[in-house]
Write a structure and sequence with these properties.
135 residues; 6 helices; 2 strands; 50% helix; extended
Length: 135
């Protein structure tokens, strides 16, 4: 189970009630992220994130000159993994306890430190200093 903010719950309920296609997968489940064809596959999610994270999704022209269906080739696109890594790092910077982040993101604390924490050594030192200066 994952706890989410009340506003997120309202948004998800609105999506389910008004926009989510009424489809079930081969196991009888109703996937949250779906299309008229059924459950959305990882490749479709990646394509969507590629399109939404490149500059030309909000600006008139893409700095690298890519158009429409070539979003994945745009050097300015951000991968789903980068979004996950950024989210985890943001939680770490906000000093959310590592075990809580680990549980929520389904990643061990060791893997979290090795692959997801983008905090600099200096940021980590300053965070430790906040705790140790009061001891």
């Amino acid at each position: 189970m994952v706890a989410v903010a009340n506003e997120t719950v309202r948004l998800l309920n609105d999506w389910i009630e008004h926009n989510r296609p009424e489809v079930t997968d081969e196991y009888g489940r109703e996937p949250l992220i779906s299309s008229e064809q059924g459950c959305t596959i990882k490749g479709n999610i990646r394509k969507l994130i590629d399109r939404l994270t490149r500059p030309c999704s909000t600006e008139k022209e893409c700095p690298c000159g890519m158009k429409g269906e070539f979003a994945s080739k745009c050097e300015h696109s951000v991968s789903p993994h980068a979004l996950r890594r950024g989210s985890i790092t943001a939680h770490l910077r906000e000093e959310v306890p590592k075990q809580m982040i680990s549980d929520r993101a389904n990643v061990s604390p060791d893997v979290l430190d090795k692959h997801y924490n983008e905090m600099t050594q200096e940021e980590q030192m300053e965070q430790r200093r906040q705790y140790l200066d009061t001891i």
